[in-house]
Write a structure and sequence with these properties.
The protein contains 1 helix and 2 strands. The chain is an alpha+beta fold. Strands 1-2 form a two-stranded parallel ribbon.
C-alpha cells in the first residue's frame, strides 16, 4: 500500500490577504490541485 504524503484532494485551505497577483496565484494553484479553498479578502477587485 502506498501513502501519498502530499495528496491534497478534499483538504480545506483558508487563504487571507489575497489582493495582489501572488495571492491570486496561490489560490489558483490550490484550486487546481483539488483543495477546497476559502478566500478572505477586503478588496472587491479580487477575481480568480
Amino acid at each position: 500500500m502506498s501513502i501519498d504524503l502530499f495528496d491534497s484532494t478534499e483538504k480545506v485551505a483558508l487563504v487571507t490577504g489575497v489582493v495582489d497577483s501572488f495571492g491570486n496565484t496561490i489560490v489558483k494553484g490550490l484550486c487546481n490541485s483539488g483543495v477546497i479553498t476559502v478566500v478572505n479578502t477586503y478588496s472587491q477587485k479580487f477575481f480568480i
